[in-house]
Amino acid sequence: MIDQDSLVAEIRTLHDDLALWLGTPDARDALARFGDQLHREFSMVVMQGAVVARDQLLAGLNGAGHSMPGLTIDIVDIDVLHRADDCAVARFREIHHRPDGPAARLTTGLLVADAAARNGLRWRSVHETAVL
Q1: Are strands 51-53 and 72-83 parallel, antiparallel or unpaired?
Q2: What is the mean pLDDT of residues 40-61?
Q3: Which has fewest Cβ within 10 Å: 23, 80, 107, 119?
């Protein structure tokens, strides 16, 4: 069974890498770590409702480095919905502390077991919903 502590660590670490890439200059290593954690068939449903594939997401992020100086992302209210040997599903709240003020979203992620990945997990799918 996927270890819950590893799952929580991966959720937090991925978002730390994202915040580092978007919030600080010259953090290309953070973007590389972020991209390495996404399954080759990764896709996500963004807050506007569109489905975005891995390559499309990474292309957009590539041009967004340091676009939100000082960004941090807090991960709270992690609810592990399912854990098995091959995958886990978790729902959590992301609080983005941006220059123009905080914004929150509710996120559900499917992570699959992968011994070669950080924390033994790789992101397969994400669904984000804005929290008003």
Answers
A1: unpaired
A2: 97
A3: 80
